[in-house]
Amino acid sequence: MKQTMRIESVTLSGLRSFGPNPVTVDLANDLTTIVGPNASGKTALLQGLSKLFGVTRDQRTVQRSDFHLSRR
What is the pTM of this model? Predict the structure, then answer.
C-alpha cells in the first residue's frame, strides 16, 4: 500500500515580509495557486517552503536576511 504525506497548511512568522504575528496559508488537496499584489509575501512563502524541503544544503541554509527585521 502506497502512503503519501500531504501538507495541509503552512504557518509563517518572522520570515522575510512576514512579521511577528503568525500567518497561516491553507493549501488545497490537488492544486494551490499563490496570487497577490506585489510585496504580499508570495515569494517569501515559497522561500520558506524551500528552507524546509530544499534539495540542496544551500536551499535549506538559513541566512540572517531570511528573517523579518522591524525598522525602528
Answer: 0.72
